[in-house]
Amino acid sequence: MATASTLSPYGARPKAGVRRLSSMTATREDLAKGPSVVVPPKHMMAPSNAHEVAEAMEMAKHHVDQIASGEISPTTPQPTTTTDAFAYAFDIDGVLIRGGKPIPEAVEAMKVLNGQNEWGIKVPYIFVTNGGGKTEEERCLQLSQQLEIEVSPGQFICGHTPMREMAEHYNTVLVVGGEGEKCRLVAEGYGFKDVVTPGDIIKDNQDTTPFRKLTDDEIKNSKARNFSEVDIEAIFVFADSRDWAGDQQIILDLLMSKNGRLGTRSETFDEGPPIFFSHNDVVWSTSHELTRIGMGALRASLEAMFKAVTGKELRTTAFGKPQIGTFQFATRLLQQWRKDTHGIDSPPETVYFVGDTPESDIRGTNEYNESPLSENTWYSILVRTGVYRKGSRPQFEPKVTVDNVLDAVHHGMQLEMTKLIRNKTVASSRQDGEAIMEET
In this structure, what is the dihedral angle of CA atoms 142, 146, 151, 157, given to the nearest 10 degrees? Predict the structure, then answer.
């Protein structure tokens, strides 16, 4: 059970109703009970500099959800030391974390954003990752432990986060990927009412996948049902598949079925359920010295096999980066944060996106920035600590390329401070000119 703290910090007092939960004892279930900030044990007695942003972003996320459901209560902005002019959005794997361990400069970068800089300002930030198979709450717990920093689930946008908005459109769905039952739990947490896994299907008919047999744990956790009487309305690939052969066989069976009924075959091959992927990264950065294939490769494989078997093109839909919907979701969150904390109903003027993958992070940032849907400036920064390697030419060019995330933070803050000084100088010159005109 989580240990909670409501003690007063040196700075702002935690908001009523926002719980502070220990990163070492809190669980996903604890965080799902209401607004929470995950706290390393060393900060449980007194909040750190990271508390203010984590708490405010958590409340903003809850307000975004309330607006979507038509239930929102007005908020009154409180005094804050956090700038509203700009913000940061970070990819996680290859930018902050590599192989489960923090990239050395990541810890220092977080300190700089939380006020340890020459200007003494705090900067808001969120995390936008294509990594799937875990809830935003689980991601939050993991990153708090890795970076030893206060963070909240409201700061996290996963590749499958926008899928929560589809729960009301589909009843029975197949969810693929991830470890054990985690993706089923994520989907149910998003509001999907009847979630099926490949294990459920194999348990009903073990001949579905000739070369895969369920383990004792899988047999125990998989749900028994008669799929000859079930129509599966949609397929969601929430995380990377742990069994490409078995998962692809089941997905193809459904894509070629009549209305999602296993054991049937459509004569036209266009009656199967739609399929959605939480992201489209073909490769990603791990502890291995070379990149590893990801969900985008599975998507390409399925499309190729479907065409080889049916002669038709398979229509698929991907969320996550570089899809514009992910950036719109991030913009709504940052806009709500700015409204809650500063009383300004518009997103920060500039968002610096720091990523390691040109094909998703940089492409998505650039395309959203150039689209008519963008209400502010999104500035792409590529780091050399993940997928991208020094000496290669990225297919999608960032605004700037730097060695690591700390350099990225310094770069954006320097640009903003230079902009601020220039604006103050122009304003001062204008005032001097007006004074002279009045004297004459």
Answer: -50
